[in-house]
Amino acid sequence: MVYAIDLDTAKELVEAAEQRADEIGQPMVVTVANGEGNLVAQHRMDDAWLASVSISKNKAYTSAALDTPTHELAESSEPGNSLYGLQTTDEGRIVVFGGGYPLTRDGDVVGAIGASGGAVEQDRTVAEAGVERWEELVDAGEA
């Protein structure tokens, strides 16, 4: 069976991420995508940067498309390394800094989450809250 993240689940992930953003005092844009990297849900918190709308969407897309957290692409895409220039491919949608994570179920990537609006570590912290909620739902058999 192929699993797809539905809107209700995506909203739960966005809510968990936004709670973390509130805790750290940094408005964010949070995006949840399906396994193909297509938008399921996106929310821009009050006062979050407008540029973060496309950045968070692209972080989710990158994580789904490449089955990896975006921060793991940073070093390999530096000059002289094997993936140098990666961020210039795929019509500029590839992001090589932190804040995007794949969402897995039974070993398969079924979606992704991206957060943008602060420093990279803040983006990662916020997105990780969504990943944690996803894992809780999967473990409880609710996703």
UniProtKB/TrEMBL annotation:
Domain of life: Archaea
Protein name in UniProt: Uncharacterized conserved protein GlcG, DUF336 family
SUPFAM superfamilies in the cross-refs: GlcG-like
Stored InterPro entries: GlcG_carb_metab_protein (IPR052517), PduO/GlcC-like (IPR005624), PduO/GlcC-like_sf (IPR038084)
Entries under Pfam families matching the protein: HbpS-like
